[in-house]
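Ticket #432: bound-state structure for zinc ion.
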Amino acid sequence: MPDSQRIRTLSVLLAGAALAAACGDAPVAPDPAEIPVGTVSGKVVAPGISAFGDITARVRWGTQDETAPVAPDGTFAVPLYDEVEGFGTLTLEPGSEEPVHPGWILLTPGDVNGGQGTVVLAPRTWTIDAGTYAGTEVPIDPEMAADPRVLPSYWGFYFPYSQQGFLQTVTDNTRWMADLRSWPQDRFPLRLALDHPGSNTALAPEDSAAFWAHVTVMEEALGFDVFRPARTEELQILGGTRRAANAVLVQIDTNLPVRGTIRINPTDPQTYALRADARTWSGTGVQDFDLVSSDIWYGVVQFDAVERLNDRQLVIHELMHILGAGHGCSWASVQTYCASLATDVPTPADVAHLRVLGELRALELEHRTRWGVAASVFGHRVVTLGLAPIPTPSLVYGPVSRPGDWLSPTIEQPRLPESRGFTLEDGGFAGR
Ligand SMILES: [Zn+2]
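RESOLUTION: The complex was predicted; output attached.
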């Protein structure tokens, strides 16, 4: 506890004692400046961690800078002594020995005395529990997982962009978005069908055998049974563009202009959505951020030729997208466009970051928190790296944003965005 706070807490206690002692006589009023006007209360949670040690909760609001320790059960309550307006921030600051990354959250006045919020913190490391890499401890890096150099990032963050083959062009770098996606854990192994009726060319048994051999390699790396073979006749094929409920279809379309592409269901913003106007508090070029975290319940993979089923890298790459992984140039990966980092099986960093994304999403949903994966990304940037909470893309192809109006009085509460589809084209995937 900082000295200033210790003295103030002490003076509040003394004032209370004086008030009690004076009961029945003339009451002694405590100094109003020493009585909290409210508290910001919350609880931290993290995958695989049930007891917390050295973590400080800090609220900065205007000139106020107040802290409180996080209790072993994760709860905290930071007192504020002055009225608040506009935005404040809450940071969770772990000591160097703690196994979690920091968290960063934007506060609005309704959060003071607004009940207990939950903050999901990312683990600093993840130990892979099964498969090829069982026992491997992998550093978890929220900044690298959200790195927007290749869009979308591994954890699904992106600036709006258009894609033509290999070239991704940022079309709006004032808006930072994320589709944080994964399948509910109880759906595995997912039913997967090579979709003969949905393909415009014949699939031979040897093509199927080659495809499933790649799936087996992928499952050994991920350490669990991801897919099980299904026939399209067993699946519930939905109307509109061909797709199957709670299953994955793999199709060959020789008219496809790219080598491979995937579709998953649009996000359901009712699951978890956060959208805010960043102009009043951010120092970056980003003016809005717009995050949606929701479950996947169908996936379709398309290849432009039957020979692609023999391409281990392409097959696994597209199936990793079906599981919710984006791209990246941050580590050796089956999901990278950066040739020197390319592999044809998921690497330990791929496996651990995909698993942690799923774990963080599950905690978001369980605790109905307004700030989930984003709090970890922002916390790592602000507290650990000393950066602005939201990145600016290092490669800007699109129009440069105009300076924001930093004094705009607009305060937008989080609201539900429109549903977005999510497609990826891997036309120029040039890893090998
Ligand atoms: Zn891709």
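RESOLUTION NOTES: The two ends are 55 Å apart (CA to CA).
TICKET STATUS: resolved
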